[in-house]
Structure formats: C-alpha cells, structure tokens
Amino acid sequence: MIGFTIALGLTFFVVCLAFVLFHSLRVGRLTLVDWSILGMGGVYGVGWSIVVGITWSGGNPTWENWILPYTHFYPIHTALTFVLVAATYLGWLIFGSLFPRGRQRTTSVGSGVRNQEKSLLIAMWCLLIISFGMQWLYTLAYGGFLGILEYSRSIRSAIFPIQNRLSFLQPFGGLALFASFGFFGLWLSRYRRPAVWSGLCLSLLFSLYILYSWMGRIGFLTYLATFVLGAILYRRPRPFSLLFSGLGVLIAILVGVYCISIWLNLKPADNLLVFLVQELSFPFGSFFAQLDFGENLFRCFKDFIVSPVYLLPSSLWTQWVEGVSQVNTALIMGAPKGKQGVTGGIPVDLLTLGLMQMSVYGIPIVGAVFGALLRLIQYLLDNINNPGLRAVFEAYIAIKIAVLGVFYAQPELFVSGNFALAVSLIIIGFFSKVARIS
Is residue 360 helix, strand or coil? Predict the structure, then answer.
C-alpha cells in the first residue's frame, strides 16, 4: 500500500509537470496558473511521497498519529488533488473568457516613458516614507525601532500579549518591501538615476529590518527570491528554461528555510529530509483529521463571506470570527492558538480548505475560485506598462500567491498577508494614472 501511495504521488507530480510544460509552451510563457499547478505537484505529489515514506519508517513522530491510521484515505486524497488541479484550470479558463487575451504591455520609447518612470519613482518614495512613518508610530509602544526587536519573538508566539493601540499600523510596514521591488524594477528597466539607487538601498535595508521584526522565515526568503526570479522574468526566457530556473528558486527557498531554522534553533532536525517532512506534514494531517472528524466539513463558505473583516484590526474581529485555521488548530492541538498553552497555529492548505467548506464537493468550487483569482491577477499584471516593474511584481505574486497560496490557503492569512500589496498597487496605480493624464 505504501509503495503504491508513493508511486501515485509521483505520478501526480509528473502529470502536473507535463501539463505545465504543455500549457506554457502553447501560450509562450509561464502564467500564474502554471506556477500554481507546479506548486500543487510539488506539495501533493513529491511532498506527499516523501512524507508518507518517512512517516512509515518512523521518522516523523510529531505527525504519525494523524497520518499512519488513515491508509484508507490515501487514494481519496490523491484523487481529490487531481480534481483540484482540474478545477483550478477550469476556473482560469472560464474567468479568462470574460477578458480579452492578456498581453504584456510596454510603452513606446519617448517622453511618455520618462514621465511614467518619474511618476513611478515618486510612488516608490511615497511607499517608503509612509512605511517608515507608520512603523515609527507602531513601535512607540515597544520603545522604538530597536525595542520592537526585543519583543518580536513573544509577539510571534503570542506568549506575552502586548497592548498597543496602534497595532493596526503594523501591516503598513510592508510597504517598504514593495518600494524596494519598485526601485529594483525601475533599475531593471534601465532607469538608473541616483534617486533610484538611493531609494533601492534605503528600502532594501528597511525591508530587511521589517522582515526581521516579523520573524518570518518564509517571508524573508520569499522577499529575497523575488529579486532573483524578477531578474529572470525580465529577460523573458523560453518557457522551458524559465520552468527549471523557477524550480531552482523554489528549491532554494526550501533549503533556505532549513538553514535559517538551524541558525535560529527553530524546529531543529537531524537533516534536510526530516526537516522537510516536519514542514510538509500539516496539509495531509489536517486533511485526514478533518475528513475523519467530520464536524467541520460544512462551513458553507462562511470563511470567504467574512473575509473582508480581516482587513480590520484583529482586535475588532477575533472575539466573534473563528477562522478556519483556528478550527483546524483546535482539532489537532486540542485548543486554538493562544489558549491552553498552544503557542502555534496549524495552517490550512487549499485542498483542506475546500474540504472544510462543503466536504468533497467544496474542493472543485474552491479550486475554481482560486483559478479565477489567478486569472484576474494575471490580467492586471499584463497591463503594467513598465517591464521591470511587471517582472518583479509577477515574480512576487508567483511565489507568494500562486505557489505558497496552495500551501497556506486560509482566507484570513490571504487577506491580511496581502494587505501591503493591495495598498502598494493602489498608490502605484494612482501615480501611473497621473502620468497618463499628464
């Protein structure tokens, strides 16, 4: 049974890889749906094969109670991953029929280009200044910019709750990340004035400070990988070359998470393989636990209905909105995060999210919604005129939303985690509009 399960998982990965190759060659580039299906193949294919093999050999004691007893669910899980992939692509196609075919736009050379680049440069400096000001106000309760670093670990683990009336300003610190992406995009587009260089250096340093204060390993590596993948996308390589370059970037993120965890003494493991098993087990343990427990399988998409409230400060909704991750954590850990000694949460992947909305019937619906969302974002990206800016933002979205969105799919994390991205795009869009009017 275990050998058959591993073979089935590897088969799923091969099917996903073949689809991505065929689709990308047909359209002439890798789109967001290609990145997402590649991520699904990695998580539910290769990842599942590694997890089930190591767990059955006794190398995954943390999750063995949520994986070993459910051998009868193994074929069902893989079958539903095929459904998820098909539904995601179907949502991509259906939503894509509402728009003309996306095209990568580039403004012709001339004064219009320079006016637009000047406006984008102003927008990036605005993002950086707003980020700095909001972070300064936010950190006053912790003793300033340096004081927040002393509390960052306790904030992340929720062991020592700290009252801060300006806590809603914390997400605005993320604007610095997108300012650095914008400066780098302008540099890629050969707009290399001193204001671009100085802005890139300052925003890069401040972004690293912000990421360190957030204590997020994945966020830090996603940030660095965006510059690498953005530079690759700007060169517009052939789909085959881009696919393997992208795989290299994603693998580097996995290895980087392991190295940082060892360095910070977080979730130590004997080797990289054992560490990956520990990190990749929660999508499968969560799926089997929810399917076996059965009481959380008909949330009827209320997690999507209430998702706009996650734009508000958490103090306004945590008492009356129970997120899907809280429900999942309570089932597996015995209590939600922050109660009864539980200091960490169990995220929800895309497959488990669909399962918890309407049992197995919710999976194709959630997959189709995800595919439609990717198509909308792709359409917006293709209408960015500046090629450098478009490449860097597409790289970030490909990693953060298309790939990691499969792994961490709970709506509260998607909305709050992309707040800075949405605000940045609004500010950039405003200045771009001003440039066009001029």
Answer: strand
In sequence order, the β-bridge partners of residue 360 are 358
Q: Work out the number of other CB atoms within 10 angstroms of the CB of residue 404.
A: 21
Over residues 78-125, the pLDDT tens digits come to: 999 999 999 999 999 999 887 665 555 555 455 566 778 889 999 999
Phi, psi (deg, nearest 5) at residue 359: 55, -145
Handedness of CA 213, 219, 221, 224 (dihedral sign): negative
pLDDT (tens digit per residue) in 36-49: 999 999 999 999 99
Q: Residues 394-408: what's their mean pLDDT?
A: 96
How much of the chain is in helix, strand and coil states, percent to nearest 5?
75, 0, 25
Cα-Cα-Cα-Cα torsion 371, 400, 101, 188, nearest 10 degrees, comes to: -170
* Ramachandran area for residue 164 (φ above 0: left; ψ -120 to 50: alpha; else beta): beta
A 10 A CB-CB count for 295 gives 8
Q: What is the token pair recorded at 151?
A: 């509390």
Name the strand (E) or helix (H) holding 35.
Answer: helix 32-41
